[in-house]
């Protein structure tokens, strides 16, 4: 008996109710139309070399084209590698080179600097040798014969790397199948649900909005990029599209609570509000739950390497207490350990590093066996691998886990996990920079803000606008420092290391 594949989710949703709206964006697409369009595009991609073992660059903003293209790549059995169109060309080139990309699928052709692409299929014409994806109906409609791998890599999500290069986390088909099934069962998703797709496609949160929606036969409602900086418009979108399930980083919800004028919108359709990616400030959650008393509120936790591994349904009676929101306990078939520096279980109530094992686990970092062997080790129960999260947690008396921070330097900001080293490497590339260090500054809305501390070379001066423009050429916008501080020389500890604690405490 064959195993379930991601394409099976789409096929079953179509078989059950092909006339159900699958995607509601600038137009509506039914499940029958979605599977037909993705199959047509899959045939074109197959002729262009998309097949099992191939990695396809996937560069889209929110659109119907993006959803069709994602399932077309899946249909061919290839792995999609999401890129953000707003990223600098240098970063795209670095990722394409690292992933061995030969096929590009996106809104526009590959930017200058991205080389080695054999074929580019784009939804808008451009000055290149790309094949314009003007209309899905232009393709012959033959069914793609390639079968999606049952235990293969569905996508590779590139996250911040401490060496200055992003690292590619391999997300398995098994991970997405298991997580989507748990999500549909736990949240009781059904074809009447309408899921907002707020997270960008290169962020693991988006896999809930897509694969859980399709498994349930529900409607995906991508949030237009132009609305994300305008909380009032996001709240209006939620009301106008009759969203029933919202999933995002806490900062997006906090901004809607502060500036969205929630009382001005009919949000009565909302039945689940889910947040993940960073710590939800308790005062903001209290205000949100008061403004929106009907939906359930659930905190999901998990690094990209584990997708979601724990959950916690917020009991509204807890909101009056000045206690942090737990990350809760394991989802189905997931095992957790809280251990000390030697990997030994800590005593109950003590803090330790969280280790995670289970079917949602990555099978490693693309092209980096050394990092894979460092972060994935044999599980204490001798059943597969365990991922060392680097997160410090503590177990409450009732068994719920509390997140207490990182055991390393990684910064969580706006839902992203950011390695300060990657920003520092970028800053050190500037010819006038002698020293640079990056530290987090706690922020009630964004979790943390990023502070860059810079010392220029002797006889040179550097201005903030110059460094911001320089960093924009090599870092995505979410990694750009929010605060800049300039020094003659960075402070040192008694061991001659940069004093990061002192830099974090100093005000500009």
Principal-axis shape: globular
* Major sheet attributes: 5 strands, parallel
Assembly state here?
single chain
Q: Helix count, per DSSP?
A: 13
Structural category is: alpha/beta
Kindly report the spatial arrangement of strands forming the biggest sheet.
4-3-5-6-7
Percent in strands: 25-35%
Kindly identify the CATH topology of the largest domain: Rossmann fold
Mean pLDDT: 90
Instruction: Please tally the β strands and state the result.
Output: 26
State the low-pLDDT regions, or none: none
Percent of residues in helices comes to 25-40%
Instruction: Report the span from N to C terminus.
Output: 64 Å
If you compute it from the alpha carbons, what radius of gyration comes out, rounded to the nearest whole angstrom?
A: 23 Å
User: How many structural domains?
Assistant: 3
Q: Return the CATH class of the largest domain.
A: Alpha Beta
What is the level-2 CATH architecture name of the largest domain? 3-Layer(aba) Sandwich
């Amino acid at each position: 008996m064959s195993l379930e594949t991601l394409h099976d989710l789409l096929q079953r949703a179509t078989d059950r109710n092909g006339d159900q709206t699958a995607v509601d964006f600038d137009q509506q697409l039914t499940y029958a139309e979605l599977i037909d369009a993705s199959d047509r595009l899959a045939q074109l991609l197959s002729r262009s070399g998309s097949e099992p073992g191939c990695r396809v660059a996937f560069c889209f903003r929110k659109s119907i084209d993006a959803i069709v293209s994602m399932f077309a790549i899946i249909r061919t059995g290839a792995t999609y590698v999401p890129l953000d169109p707003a990223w600098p060309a240098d970063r795209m080139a670095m990722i394409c080179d690292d992933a061995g990309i030969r096929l590009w699928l996106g809104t526009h052709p590959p930017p200058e600097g991205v080389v080695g692409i054999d074929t580019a299929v784009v939804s808008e014409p451009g000055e290149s040798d790309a094949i314009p994806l003007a209309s899905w109906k232009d393709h012959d409609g033959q069914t793609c014969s390639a079968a999606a791998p049952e235990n293969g890599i569905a996508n590779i999500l590139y996250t911040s790397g401490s060496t200055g290069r992003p690292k590619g986390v391999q997300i398995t088909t098994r991970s997405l199948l298991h997580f989507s099934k748990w999500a549909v069962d736990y949240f009781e998703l059904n074809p009447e649900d309408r899921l907002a797709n707020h997270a960008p496609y290169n962020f693991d949160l988006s896999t809930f909005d897509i694969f859980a929606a399709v498994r349930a036969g529900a409607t995906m409602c991508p949030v237009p990029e132009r609305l994300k900086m305008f909380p009032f418009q996001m709240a209006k979108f939620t009301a106008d599209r009759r969203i029933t399930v919202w999933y995002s980083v806490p900062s997006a919800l906090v901004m809607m609570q502060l500036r969205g004028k929630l009382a001005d919108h009919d949000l009565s359709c909302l039945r689940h509000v889910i947040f993940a990616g960073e710590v939800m400030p308790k005062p903001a959650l209290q205000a949100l739950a008061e403004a929106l008393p009907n939906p359930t509120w659930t905190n999901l936790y998990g690094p990209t390497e584990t997708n979601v591994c724990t959950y916690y349904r917020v009991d509204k009676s807890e909101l009056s207490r000045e206690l942090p929101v737990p990350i809760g306990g394991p989802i189905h078939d997931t095992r957790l350990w809280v251990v000390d520096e030697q990997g030994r279980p800590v005593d109950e109530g003590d803090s330790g590093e969280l280790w995670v094992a289970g079917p949602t686990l990555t099978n490693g970092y693309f092209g980096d066996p050394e990092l894979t062997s460092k972060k994935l080790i044999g599980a204490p129960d001798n059943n597969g691998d365990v991922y060392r999260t680097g997160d410090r947690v503590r177990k409450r008396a009732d068994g719920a886990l509390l997140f207490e921070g990182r055991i390393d330097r990684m910064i969580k900001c706006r839902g992203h996990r950011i390695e300060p080293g990657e920003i520092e490497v970028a800053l050190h590339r500037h010819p006038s920079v002698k020293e640079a260090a990056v530290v987090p500054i706690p922020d009630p809305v964004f979790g943390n803000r990023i502070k860059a501390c810079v010392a220029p070379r002797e006889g040179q001066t550097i201005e903030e606008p110059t460094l911001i423009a320089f960093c924009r050429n090599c870092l995505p916008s979410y990694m750009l420092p929010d605060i800049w501080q300039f020094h003659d020389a960075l402070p040192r500890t008694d061991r001659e290391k940069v004093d990061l604690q002192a830099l974090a405490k100093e005000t500009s």
